[in-house]
From TrEMBL:
Membrane-spanning segments: 20-47, 67-89, 101-121, 133-155, 167-189, 209-228
Keywords in alphabetical order: Membrane, Transmembrane, Transmembrane helix
Keyword Membrane: yes
Protein name (record): DUF2306 domain-containing protein
InterPro entries assigned: DUF2306_membrane
Pfam family, one: DUF2306
Domain of life of the native organism: Bacteria
Length: 238
């Protein structure tokens, strides 16, 4: 009897926690591009008049095609303020209507980031094609598809599959930040070696696809060892 009560309490804890570790990590990760985006949008908006603001942080091209930068930036900010909190079990269960609304914002902004990223490439580096451009197209397609599949399972009320696919979508979305961390780390460790040029070129051309694979391997381990095991425990003892 005592053991059953203990197991029931543990199951309740599993299914009702705020999940601060995951939420906090995602907030930190997505703050890296989102916070600079806020200032970039402000500077671009203030500089759209006759005298554009000159700053080393603002690419002059932004003033030529503000629609692209505003689209990409706004989607990024919406994603930052909505996506991390989707992974709080407490918020999902207590505020279901909010979860649905914020989830729609996350999915729309995630797809918007992926597609507007292609437009950003054409705006900033129109002459760069080849493997790097194909990697960007593959990354954008995979990211968009993962959010679409996540929405499909939510619409079908297959919530376990929905949750798994949203974890995958978020892992894919973190690819640019993960790639940045990898590039900085490798530069600090091996930047003086001649072979680093080969590594740098590989990451420049294929880095997005390479990091997508790494992130998906990590998240699949997380899903199998943490998410699914917790749900199976709750289903068995809840």
């Amino acid at each position: 009897m005592t053991q059953d009560i203990r197991l029931s309490n543990k199951a309740q804890k599993v299914t009702s926690s705020f999940n601060w570790p995951t939420v906090s990590i995602l907030l930190i990760i997505f703050a890296i591009p989102a916070i600079p985006a806020v200032f970039i949008l402000i500077f671009v908006a203030l500089g759209l008049g006759e005298t554009p603001i000159q700053s080393e942080f603002i690419n002059p091209v932004y003033y030529q095609k503000p629609v692209v930068i505003f689209t990409h930036g706004i989607f990024g900010i919406l994603f930052f303020v909505s996506a991390p909190f989707q992974f709080s079990t407490y918020l999902r269960q207590r505020y279901k209507q909010w979860h649905r609304m914020a989830g729609c914002i996350t999915i729309i902004s995630g797809i918007g980031i992926a597609l507007s990223g292609i437009a950003m490439h054409h705006m900033l580096t129109p002459d760069v094609k080849g493997a790097r451009y194909l990697s960007l197209l593959a990354f954008s397609a995979i990211m968009s598809l993962s959010f679409i599949v996540g929405f499909y399972y939510a619409w079908r009320k297959s919530f376990t599959n929905h949750q798994c696919w949203m974890y995958r979508a978020i892992a894919i979305s973190a690819t640019p930040i993960s790639l940045l961390v990898i590039e900085i780390s490798l530069n600090l460790l091996f930047g003086q070696l001649m072979a680093y040029e080969l590594i740098h070129q590989f990451l420049f051309d294929y880095g997005r696809v390479f990091v997508v694979v790494l992130n998906l391997v990590f998240i699949e381990c997380f899903i199998s060892k943490t998410l699914l095991s917790s749900q199976n425990f709750a289903a068995r003892y809840g």
